[in-house]
């Protein structure tokens, strides 16, 4: 009951006119930045950090939190409409969302995304308010061996289980790990695969990889397919973004499953919301195969948008709780929020709730208000965003190319990044031509450094004894579940191959 009392007091502080203004500004700015390819909520917080020196701490953090969630809402908009997610957290939503857009249901996909983000964020924030003391216990259970097992689980789940072909999935995984290894080795300081170029010392930015594979690769593939044999087609973007009762009932289990994936991942530093969103997408894909859904992977299925979107915002909600309760930034945006706290001379952690309750509880209350504002902003205007698909293809994809290049160049003002963008775009084009899945490349590039670092840390602690990798119940459970998932996937693929052979005989 103490938490409920504190939360009600927080609403009193958050519902002042000036704080509501900061909430609205943050929601609009976060959504706008999230829509731009290559940018995201972390960059928005970084750019606005100097501006808030003149604001009081409560107003500044309320605006930052609104930007945080607004960026996640906006990231999915670009991914659904243009197949160019604004941030890596929206990659999984893009797969089915863009297919829905191409089949004339862009507004419905955007509406599903907004509702999923609202449900996932609201449930996660509610859990943070009432169960923040238990976040400490959850996070302290994970050591280097557990993080490594989690990364391996994600690798196998995406490459061997979610992908249609195990071989192609493993090829894509290898490509992603190769990209992740470029740069200076964090342990020894040695150069790896840098070709002696200083521009590669910091590695290849995940923004460059994401935009190159998804945006430039898609542009080249569309240009390749729009040759002489392709009839002219016009995308119909009409429709309502609001879900009717049948559609909402279909999507609700996916919303809840995605939230269940996202909530625990926000409290542990595994690189952000990429893992739970991909796991949510993989789960919905397997369930669609089981019920023989003809839309999933073809015209786009509403569950394939609902699950990952709820997972992404649920992760963001518990990540905020982990930051406040533990001082543990579990994503890039949370790390920027930590820098903002330090700017005001405060250190997030268990004592923050006691020493700065007048800041923490209005901040948590503002998350609920911000999610409502974002739903109001995004849901009614989904059909307006969908009008982008009425732009002729040659103008639309030329604009995507320009904005993608500008977004990548804005990160470090590096022409090397632009050449890399082109090279990775050509790789993405080749992968589409030869039906090699993109998701394993992205998840390997994101989690590869984490897997390498935690493996070396675990072996250093055990003085080279590999038994430490299976020395805790968490690691054993993860590896057992992974083995069962791989076995089930192989059996399912063998059955599908036998059915095809029988039908062709």
From TrEMBL:
Keyword Transmembrane helix: yes
Entry keyword set: Membrane, Transmembrane, Transmembrane helix
Highest taxon of source: Bacteria
InterPro entries: DUF112_TM
Claim: Transmembrane is one of the keywords in the record: yes
Domain DUF112 as annotated: residue spans: 20-442
Transmembrane segments: 20-49, 61-82, 109-131, 138-160, 166-184, 196-216, 319-339, 359-383, 395-412, 419-447, 467-491
Signal peptide: none
Alphabetized PANTHER family for the sequence: TRICARBOXYLIC TRANSPORT PROTEIN
Protein name (database record): Tripartite tricarboxylate transporter permease
The species this protein was found in: Mycetocola reblochoni
Lineage: Bacteria, Bacillati, Actinomycetota, Actinomycetes, Micrococcales
């Amino acid at each position: 009951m103490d938490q409920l009392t504190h939360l009600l007091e927080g609403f009193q502080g958050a519902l002042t006119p000036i704080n509501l203004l900061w909430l609205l500004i943050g929601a609009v700015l976060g959504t706008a930045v999230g829509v731009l390819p290559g940018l995201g909520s972390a960059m928005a917080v970084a750019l606005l950090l100097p501006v808030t020196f003149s604001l009081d701490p409560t107003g500044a953090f309320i605006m930052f939190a609104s930007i945080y969630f607004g960026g996640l809402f906006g990231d999915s908009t670009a991914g659904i409409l243009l197949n160019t997610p604004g941030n890596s957290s929206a990659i999984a939503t893009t797969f089915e969302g863009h297919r829905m857009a191409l089949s004339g249901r862009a507004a419905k996909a955007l509406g599903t995304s907004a509702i999923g983000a609202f449900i996932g964020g609201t449930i996660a924030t509610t859990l943070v308010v009432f169960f923040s003391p238990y976040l400490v216990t959850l996070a302290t259970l994970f050591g280097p061996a557990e993080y490594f097992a989690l990364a391996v689980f994600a690798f196998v789940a995406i490459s061997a289980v979610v992908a249609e072909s195990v071989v192609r999935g493993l090829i894509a995984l290898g490509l992603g790990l190769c990209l992740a290894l470029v740069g200076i080795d964090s342990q020894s300081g040695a150069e790896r695969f840098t070709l002696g170029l200083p521009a590669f010392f910091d590695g290849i930015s995940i923004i460059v990889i994401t935009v190159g594979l998804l945006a430039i690769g898609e542009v080249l593939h569309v240009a390749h397919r729009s040759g002489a044999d392709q009839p002219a087609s016009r995308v119909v973007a009409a429709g309502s973004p609001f879900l009717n009762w049948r559609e909402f009932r279909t999507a609700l289990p996916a919303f809840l499953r995605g939230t269940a994936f996202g909530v625990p991942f926000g409290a542990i530093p595994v690189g952000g919301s990429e893992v739970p969103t991909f796991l949510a997408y993989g789960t919905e894909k397997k369930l669609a195969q089981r019920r023989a859904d003809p839309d999933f992977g073809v015209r786009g299925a509403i569950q394939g948008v609902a699950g990952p979107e709820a997972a992404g915002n649920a992760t963001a909600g518990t990540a905020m709780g982990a930051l406040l309760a533990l001082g543990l930034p579990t994503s890039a945006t949370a790390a920027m929020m930590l820098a903002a706290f330090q700017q005001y001379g405060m250190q997030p952690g268990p004592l923050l709730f006691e020493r700065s309750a007048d800041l923490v509880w209005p901040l948590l209350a503002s998350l609920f208000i911000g999610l409502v504002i974002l739903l109001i902003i995004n849901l009614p205007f989904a059909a307006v965003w969908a009008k982008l698909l009425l732009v002729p293809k040659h103008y639309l994809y030329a604009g995507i190319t320009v904005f993608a290049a500008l977004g990548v160049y804005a990160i470090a003002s590096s022409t090397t990044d632009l050449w890399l963008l082109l090279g990775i775009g050509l790789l993405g084009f080749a992968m589409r031509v030869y039906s090699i899945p993109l998701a394993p490349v992205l998840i390997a590039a994101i989690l590869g450094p984490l897997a390498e670092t935690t493996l070396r840390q675990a072996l250093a602690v055990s003085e080279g004894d590999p038994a430490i990798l299976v020395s805790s119940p968490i690691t054993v459970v993860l590896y057992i579940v992974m083995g069962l998932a791989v076995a089930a996937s192989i059996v399912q693929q063998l059955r599908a191959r036998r059915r095809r052979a029988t039908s062709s005989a």
